[in-house]
Structures are given as structure tokens and as C-alpha cells.
Write a structure and sequence with these properties.
By secondary structure, this protein is of the alpha+beta class. It has four helices and six strands, in the order ααααββββββ. InterPro entries: GrpE, GrpE_CC, GrpE_head.
Length: 196
């Protein structure tokens, strides 16, 4: 065998117990500090876990409220859109009401027995009917409360009159019809009311 092979086959020197080094004093203190630090870290970890649990509890309480608030906002937005759609024609319908009033006055002014105005009256009546039908397609309703009880939400009292044959607080005459758009008042009916 060569010298190199002999060196490789030799066993390493045995380590004698005297040769084991004792730990340095600094190492012992570090281990002691680590023990103290571990205790502090355990306390901090416990505090952090308690805080996390508290925050999770608060989040669990707030989450249903936030979802309810989002649903309420969505519902309100849908209602606003629906109202805007339903009442978009309010101003337009309000501008057409004087035209309706003029047609009604023209019908009242024409005398049925007068041959000269008979065909005129028929034409105005047909125009009035077409106009009413067209308004009805867009949910514009006429308020004609003759003989009904006075309703301050839909009627505007112009005067109180003595009417012995009528119940007190009933509408005796309608001076101008009122109109509703999808149940909302566009214009109140101007009425004369029987005295109580």
C-alpha cells in the first residue's frame, strides 16, 4: 500500500473527554436571555391572538350590517330609478293639461241644437276622446269628483256653497278637473263644496 492509502485507512484520532470544551459564560447568559425572551414572546403572542380574536368578532358583527346597508342602498337606487321612470312625463303632462281644458270648454260652448256648431262639437269631442285615450296610455287619470266627498289631497276648494240637496262637505260642482300621473297628483281638481 502506498502512503496515501495508509493515511486514508487510518482511523481518526479519538477525541479525549478532556478535549471537550466547556461552554463559555457568555453562552449561558444568552441561553438565559433566550428563555426570558421566549416567555415574553409567548405573552406577546397570546395578546396578539386575543386581539385577532376580538377583531374577528367585531368583523363578524359588522359584516351583516354592511351587507344590509348595501342592500338598502341598492333598493333605494332601484326605487329612485323606478320613480324617475314613472314620473318622467310629469312636466310634459302638466303642459298638456291646458290643452285638455280648452277642448272641454269648446265642447261646453257648442250648443247641440245649433246645426252650425253640431259638426264642430262632434269633431272636438272626438279629438278630446283621442287626447284622453293617449293620456290614459301613459297612466294619466282624470279627477272628476262631482258628488264625491271632498278630499284635500286631490281637490282644491274654491268656495263653499249652500246646497240643501247635497251632503255636507261633498263636491257640488267641478270648475276644473284634476289629473293624476301613476297615482301622483299633477293638478288638483278645483271644486265647489257644500256647506256643512
Amino acid at each position: 500500500m502506498s502512503d496515501e492509502q495508509q493515511k486514508q485507512t487510518e482511523t481518526p484520532e479519538q477525541v479525549q473527554p478532556e478535549q471537550i470544551l466547556e461552554p463559555a459564560a457568555d453562552d449561558v447568559e444568552i441561553q438565559g436571555d433566550e428563555a426570558v425572551d421566549a416567555e415574553t414572546l409567548k405573552q406577546q403572542l397570546a395578546q396578539a391572538e386575543a386581539e385577532i380574536a376580538d377583531l374577528q368578532k367585531q368583523l363578524a358583527e359588522l359584516q351583516p350590517r354592511a351587507q344590509a346597508e348595501i342592500q338598502n342602498m341598492r333598493r333605494r337606487a332601484e326605487q329612485d330609478v323606478e320613480k324617475a321612470r314613472k314620473f318622467a312625463l310629469e312636466k310634459f303632462a302638466g303642459e298638456l293639461l291646458p290643452v285638455m281644458d280648452s277642448l272641454e270648454r269648446a265642447i261646453e260652448a257648442c250648443q247641440a241644437e245649433d246645426e252650425a256648431t253640431k259638426s264642430l262639437k262632434e269633431g272636438v269631442e272626438m279629438t278630446h276622446k283621442l287626447f284622453l285615450d293617449g293620456m290614459g296610455k301613459f297612466n294619466v287619470e282624470t279627477v272628476d269628483p262631482t258628488g264625491e266627498a271632498f278630499n284635500p289631497e286631490h281637490h282644491q276648494a274654491m268656495s263653499l256653497v249652500d246646497a240643501p240637496d247635497a251632503e255636507p262637505n261633498t263636491v257640488v260642482a267641478v270648475m276644473q278637473k284634476g289629473y293624476l300621473l301613476n297615482g301622483r297628483l299633477i293638478r288638483p281638481a278645483m271644486v265647489m263644496v257644500a256647506k256643512g
